[in-house]
Each structure stands twice: as structure tokens, then as C-alpha cells.
TrEMBL record:
Stored InterPro entries: P-loop_NTPase, PIF1_helicase
The keyword Hydrolase is annotated on this UniProt entry: yes
Annotated CDD domains: SF1_C_RecD
GO function terms (MF aspect): helicase activity
Entry keywords, A to Z: ATP-binding, Helicase, Hydrolase, Nucleotide-binding
Protein name (record): ATP-dependent DNA helicase PIF1
UniProt signal peptide: none
Taxonomic source organism: Nephila pilipes (Giant wood spider)
Amino acid sequence: MQLPPVRGLQVFQKPNSQLLSLHLWRLFGLVELTQNMRQQGDTSFVDLLNALRVGKMEAKHFDILISKKLNVADLEGDFALPKAIRIYPTNKMVDELNHLVVTHYRNQGAQIFKIKAQDELLDRDPRNNTNMDKLVPKDINKTGGIPHELEIFVGARVMLRYNVLVEGGLVNGVMGVITHIFWPNYRRDQMYDNDIPDLQIEFDRIGIHRLTPIAVKFPAVKNKGTIERRMLPIVLCWACTVHKMQGCTVDKAVINLGSNLFADGQAYVALSRLRSLDGLRIEDLDCLKLTGTTPCNEDALEEMERMRKYPLAPRP
């Protein structure tokens, strides 16, 4: 009931290239977990989420959402930036909000540094004189989730975009605040455009850690080789897309449930990141986007019903 993969098949769907082969998914049996752990104790919220995920929202559920509309008083309290993250449907909305926040800090006198990734084409064909910029994908989802440029400063709120140390809790999706910047060779400031520092970040719930640049590899445009990118594995996150928030848990958030919702399951995933209704405020609400099975992944609903009907996989 989460978000379907972008431009890809879901795990229970058989690829066209394998139509004549064994359907591996059908060999698995169903074990369904029914106890809600994240929202335990908030029965009204659990009831709303259970209705939304299967397309059975009622008037009482919409009344709850309407009562959570953001007001002027909220902007000065617990739901002010940067106390509460904004969860938006699109990258464009996220980028605009994060840019506004950076501009605000710049106007307040914050010292802001622009960090540029170091990209190298590992298997360049000597006969290929294509400019490097034309070989690097523009979509961050095609560069391992690691950005080409990043503006940082002490006090910036960031999200980790890579599993750095799983056993220590430094995993994709954890958020925190930059508390110190360590420049190369013990310098006190950025000297060169290609400088990539280490960062000291105070992460939510897992404490202070030092983060170093990492190297990721991804295909160049039109498969013209492999690019290795060296960069800090973070993005700014006063606002974040629903897709990037999958797997995250937050205590407070301002969520956009307006006309920009475009993906199956998007509203459900956004709302279910929260522990309780107390931590929810809604910036924009389009109830038509939440009625019937419009907000649901109907293919997943059908597959869930099939598995419930036939919970045991056939013996080989």
C-alpha cells in the first residue's frame, strides 16, 4: 500500500520478458501483520489511515483532516519552520521551499557554502569528446540520490540519502542539523570550488556523528560509460517529497494534500509518516483527491485480496 516504483513494475507483477517462465511471486505465502506500531494509541488516526489506504474514506475522516488545516497561529508555534518538516508531492514544490529557507538564512547573515560534486567518467572512450556535463543525468534519482550541488551552513537541516552505517542508524532517510563544518587540510574556510568538507551532524534520535563524502557509481546518459560521483550523501530537508519520506517517522509535519497529488498511495504514505494527529497540519487539501479508490494503488489492493483468499503458496 506504499508508493509503486517509478517507471517500474511492482514486485507482484510479472515482467513481459518472463511471461513463459515461472511466476516466482506466486510461490510465496502471505503473513499479514495487523498491529499498527507507529500510530498505536491514536485510534482515530489509525481508523482514518486504514480507510484511506483502501479507498473507503467517510465524512468523519474528512472532518478530521479539515480540522487540521494550517492557520496563522501554527506558523509561530510548533509547526513553524524549521520545527516541522513540510511534506510535498513534487520535487518542484520541495526545491522552492528549501530555496526560500536558504534565502531567509542568507538574508539573516548566515555564511552559506556551495558544494559541488566531483564527477569522473571511469571508462571514457578516447574517441568520445562529449562534454562531461552532457553525460551526467539531471534527475537525482538516476545519480544514486546524491545531488550535483548543495548549499550548506551551520544550522541547515539535512536528510541522509545513503546507507552509511546501518548498525549505527546512519541510514537513508534520517534527518538532522549541521553543527560543524570541517574543511580539508584543517582549513577554516572553503578555499577551492571543488572542496568537499566533512560535516558534524546532530541527527534526530541517534545523536551526533561525523559524516564524510562518499563515492557512488551510476550509468552515464545513453549508457556512455559509468560515472563515479564523490559528494556528501545529503539533501536539504526543511521540505521533502513523499517519495523520499517513505520509511521515515516524524513527530510533526505540515503536509500538502492538494491538487498536486499525482501518485497512487501518495496521500496515505504522507499521512502515515506521523505518530499521531496531534503532530499533523495540512497546508492544502483537495478532498476529491482522497475519495473512492482515487488515492489507492488498485493493483496492490487486488493482489492483497488474492493473497488473503489463497494465503498458502503451493508446494513445489
